[in-house]
Specification:
9% of the residues are buried. A hairpin with a 2-residue loop joins strand 11 and strand 12. By secondary structure, the chain is an alpha+beta fold. The longest helix is centred in the N-terminal third of the chain and has 16 residues. The strands form 4 sheets. Strands 1-3-7-6 form a 4-stranded antiparallel β-sheet, with no helix packed on it. The chain has a 4-stranded mixed β-sheet with strand order 2-10-8-5, with no helix packed on it. The chain is built from 2 helices and 12 strands. The chain has 2 domains: 98 residues, Sandwich (Immunoglobulin-like), CATH 2.60.40; 51 residues, no CATH class.
């Protein structure tokens, strides 16, 4: 008799556990992108940087995983490898990026999915600009004055003695040691 009661009790428990009261809620929420590194519109990014995309939940590869796009402003496509680690998609360019170049990254819909099979729903696009070549000499022009930034500075324009001293003081405020070594009259 005890065995019959035990079997009936176990069967009742099993039936009760499969009822809607005990059923787990189905995951219908798609993963979303919460952060990127570099961030959108970042500048001065190192040429060897990995691109990291953080999602709202753990992910695995989706059907569009090979459709990620890394393109320079001139349209050059950059080959890449990728790795998924929990909620991170780490994209590594196969070649070194170019100096002072604007890159656009497109993470297409369906690139990843969560454990319930929910795909990333929308494309996500962000940009960044790589660092300047440290060997290149910057040459900036502003309002008719040419600045050659390097070990020496050459300024072209008409400067009164008062303007010359203001310029030297301004450069000193910026942390640039400045002095006038030669004045040349421009013809």
């Amino acid at each position: 008799m005890k065995k019959i009661i035990s079997v009936i009790f176990i069967m009742a428990m099993l039936i009760g556990m499969t009822s809607p009261v005990f059923a787990a809620a189905k995951d219908t929420k798609a993963p979303t992108i919460t952060k990127t590194s570099p961030v959108d519109k970042a500048t001065d990014i190192m040429l060897e940087s990995e691109i990291v995309v953080r999602f709202s939940e753990n992910i695995k590869k989706g059907k569009a995983i090979d459709s990620i796009s890394i393109k320079s402003v001139l349209g050059k496509t950059i080959a890449y490898t990728y790795e998924i680690n929990n909620n991170l998609l780490v994209i590594t360019p196969k070649s070194k990026l170019a100096y002072s170049t604007d890159y656009t990254i497109i993470i297409p819909a369906g690139v990843v999915k969560d454990s319930a099979g929910n795909n990333l729903k929308k494309d996500y696009t962000f940009n960044f600009i790589t660092e300047e070549d440290p060997k290149a000499k910057s040459n900036l022009t502003t309002e008719g004055i040419t600045y050659h930034i390097g070990l020496e500075a050459t300024f072209q324009g008409e400067f009164t003695p008062i303007m010359q001293s203001y310029l030297v003081e301004y450069l000193k405020m910026l942390g640039i040691e400045a002095k006038i070594t030669e004045l040349t009259k421009v013809k």
